[in-house]
């Protein structure tokens, strides 16, 4: 068993969900999983161009529905209530989202081209059939059902594809692509309005279909799937339903879509009915609304790449709720135009940011299509509910209840905003200026060693047991040491930890995974408590860097066939010779290691070997571990990146592997890591306390305030034996 000081996870909470990480075969040493996204280049930006066209012809059509709503309300085609007419647009919106349940897994299986061709055909065919309709049920079949399903076959693959081509620019890429819906919402209403009079409704709709047919050529030609899973995935990712942040965000999307649908359906009819504008300007209000949303889709998404997607989404949703409430104060044409501009801008965020958020909440990118499809299917319920419920509130006879309508829209958007705040806290904690970065796991590589050492050294600064055994103060105390002496202690500690980790990584059966994220963080501020060495930044070979922010080291024990497979690489002769040389080197240099307090280390090791409960009332002697088991030797997340769910991701690989092999997991945890392990299904089976040893080591010469702080750490000077036995 590796030194217990190295088997601790530092201050990481279990705010993340259960996500499967596929393990590579033990004998394979190359990195598992797809390479990092290119994050630019001609091919990547061509995907954005293709996505722009798809948004233009899917959400752009939906943003045009206010024109259809107003035309249908006139009774020129058929006579129905506002609520019944709203069902056409609501079902079209809902099917765009719901079809993602099927389109997502089909995309994950590699059939992007089939989805593009089928979806494009159904949209064009649906509008051609709408041009022949004269009854309400016919319009429902053509516009709601056919066009809605076709749009869903295109939308989910598009928002699943873009995150695989971009990393640090994902917000900007999705924003540019989604602005196509705004441009479509500008052009299509003008086309319809200008053509319905001269050539009639049927040929006006056919013109829209011909425009869509012509530009659908772009995505069919240029869009290319970059990542394909090694084997077919299930149509539903059941782990998503136990992912609390993911489900909470899907609920928020559903609620905000209810409020947003009120704007989409009634921004044109409202000023005409109230007499603020004539019918001509009322039709153009849709174009003004969508023109403003172009900026609302690009600018906030670009900002989200710098400050974080949830940090952007939350205030935008809350501001949109205020803008919806302000509809009650409109009394003239100027006020309505201003409202259309502001509501259009903030409404654009509602469509542009959810795909980025769903991608951020999906750790395993191989199921990104399934996850996004499921999320939008749940969110689509809001679009299904929003239009008809708003129509029911508005009423059909006498004076229409516009006050109730806008209050309904404003309250739902505000409720979604507060739900987003909860999701953001679950992912990144309550601090305002914390950004959640996209991350993934990959196997350890030799060049990662210095990054791992740096991360562990930083975590040790807040571990009372590590500080007890090593000659390193958690802070620079000008009263007793100079900065030069402090730096000398730090370098000696890093050198010692490097020798130790290098040996442990050579042991047979040892598997190490590192948590990496793209270099989006420009904050390089260093201090003695949170050093982030440049060794943590590794060049991926294409001009981009990845940042290592944590790691988990596992060891396989036992003699079963599964255990022998994991140990095969470590039992190779060259590996064993390296391990022997490293062991001899560490044995020779250990007595001269100035970073270690050898007297305290001896007491610490004696306590571990005896597993003595000592005098502490809560101490219990741990049981003997099972022969066949996985052991978590170390789990560290750099202090700057803790409390963001990265530790849960690192832990999940071992849980999935142990569940597959039907063995238990053993870990020694400090107080800082207990919460993470308990949330992961571990149970406490023993405790060894060191309070008496650490208490005696406190320096009476310390200033009273510093000594008081050190004394508060004494209670946490213990390790707990914890076991995971599976479901």
TrEMBL record:
Biological classification of the source: Eukaryota, Fungi, Dikarya, Ascomycota, Pezizomycotina
Any one GO cellular component localisation term in the record: membrane
InterPro entries: Acyl_CoA_acyltransferase, GNAT_dom, MFS, MFS_dom, MFS_trans_sf, Proton-linked_MCT
Keywords assigned by UniProt, alphabetized: Membrane, Transmembrane, Transmembrane helix
Protein name, as recorded: Major facilitator superfamily (MFS) profile domain-containing protein
Organism: Talaromyces atroroseus
Family membership noted in the UniProt record: Belongs to the major facilitator superfamily. Monocarboxylate porter (TC 2.A.1.13) family.
Domain Major facilitator superfamily (MFS) profile: 43-427
N-acetyltransferase domain mapped to chain residues: 628-701
Region of interest: Disordered: 1-36, 524-543, 606-627
PANTHER family the record matches: MFS-TYPE TRANSPORTER DBAD-RELATED, MONOCARBOXYLATE TRANSPORTER
Superkingdom in the source lineage: Eukaryota
């Amino acid at each position: 068993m590796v030194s217990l000081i190295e088997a601790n996870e530092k201050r990481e909470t279990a705010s993340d969900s259960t996500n499967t990480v596929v393990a590579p075969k033990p004998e394979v040493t190359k990195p598992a999983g797809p390479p990092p996204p290119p994050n630019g280049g001609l091919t990547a930006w061509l995907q954005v161009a293709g996505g722009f066209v798809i948004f233009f012809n899917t959400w752009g059509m939906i943003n045009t529905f206010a024109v259809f709503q107003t035309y249908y309300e006139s009774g020129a085609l058929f006579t129905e209530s506002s609520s019944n007419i709203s069902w056409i647009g609501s079902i079209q919106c809902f099917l765009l989202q719901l079809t993602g349940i099927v389109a997502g897994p089909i995309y994950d299986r590699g059939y992007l081209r089939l989805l593009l061709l089928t979806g494009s055909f159904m949209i064009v065919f649906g509008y051609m059939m709408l041009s022949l309709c004269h009854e309400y049920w016919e319009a429902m079949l053509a516009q709601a059902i056919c066009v809605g399903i076709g749009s869903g076959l295109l939308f989910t693959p598009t928002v699943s594809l873009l995150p695989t081509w971009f990393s640090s620019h994902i917000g900007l890429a999705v924003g540019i692509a989604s602005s196509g819906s705004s441009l479509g919402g500008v052009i299509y209403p003008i086309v319809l309005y200008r053509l319905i009079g001269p050539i009639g409704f049927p040929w006006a709709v056919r013109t829209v279909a011909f425009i869509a047919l012509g530009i659908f050529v772009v995505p069919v030609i240029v869009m290319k799937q970059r990542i394909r899973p090694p084997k077919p995935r299930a149509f539903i990712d059941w782990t998503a339903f136990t992912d609390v942040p993911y489900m909470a965000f899907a609920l928020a999307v559903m609620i905000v879509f209810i409020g947003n649908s009120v704007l989409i359906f009634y921004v044109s009819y409202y000023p005409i009915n109230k007499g603020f504008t004539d019918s001509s300007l009322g039709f153009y209000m849709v174009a003004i609304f969508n023109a403003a949303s172009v900026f609302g889709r690009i600018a906030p998404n670009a900002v989200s790449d710098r400050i974080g997607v949830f940090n952007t989404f939350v205030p935008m949703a809350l501001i949109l709720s205020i803008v919806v409430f302000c509809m009650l104060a409109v009394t003239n044409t100027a006020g309505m135009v201003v409202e259309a501009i502001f509501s259009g801008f903030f409404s654009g965020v509602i469509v542009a940011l959810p795909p980025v958020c769903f991608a951020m909440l999906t750790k395993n990118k191989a199921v990104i299509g399934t996850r996004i499809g499921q999320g939008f299917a749940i969110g689509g319920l809001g679009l299904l509910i929003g239009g008809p419920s708003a129509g029911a509130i508005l009423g059909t006879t006498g004076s229409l209840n516009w006050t109730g309508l806008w209050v309904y829209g404003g309250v739902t958007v505000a409720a979604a905003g507060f739900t987003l705040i909860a999701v953001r806290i679950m992912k990144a904690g309550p601090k305002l200026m914390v950004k959640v970065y996209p991350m993934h796991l990959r196997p350890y590589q030799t060049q990662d060693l210095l990054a791992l050492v740096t991360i562990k050294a930083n975590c040790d600064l807040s571990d009372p047991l590590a500080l007890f055994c090593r000659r390193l103060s958690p802070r620079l105390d000008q009263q007793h040491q100079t900065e030069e002496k402090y730096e000398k202690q730090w370098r000696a500690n890093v050198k010692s930890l490097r020798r130790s980790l290098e040996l442990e990584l050579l042991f047979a059966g040892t598997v190490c995974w590192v948590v990496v994220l793209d270099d989006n963080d420009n904050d390089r501020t260093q201090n003695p408590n949170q050093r982030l060495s440049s060794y943590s930044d590794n060049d991926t070979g294409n001009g981009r860097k990845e940042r290592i922010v944590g790691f988990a080291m596992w060891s396989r024990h036992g003699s079963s066939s599964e255990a022998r497979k994991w140990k095969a690489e470590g039992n190779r002769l060259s590996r064993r010779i390296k391990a022997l040389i490293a062991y001899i080197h560490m044995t020779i240099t250990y007595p001269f290691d100035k970073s270690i307090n050898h007297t305290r280390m001896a007491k610490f090791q004696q306590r571990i070997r005896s597993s003595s409960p000592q005098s502490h009332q809560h101490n219990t002697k741990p049981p003997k571990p099972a022969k066949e088991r996985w052991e978590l030797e170390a789990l560290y997340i750099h202090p700057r990146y803790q409390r963001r769910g990265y530790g849960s991701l690192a832990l999940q690989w071992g849980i999935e592997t142990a569940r597959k092999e039907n063995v238990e997991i053993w870990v020694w945890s400090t107080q800082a890591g207990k919460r993470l392990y308990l949330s992961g299904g571990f149970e406490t089976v023993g405790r060894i306390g060191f309070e008496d040893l650490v208490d005696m080591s406190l320096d009476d010469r310390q200033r009273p305030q510093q000594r008081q702080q050190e004394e508060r750490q004494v209670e946490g000077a213990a390790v707990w034996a914890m076991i995971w036995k599976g479901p």
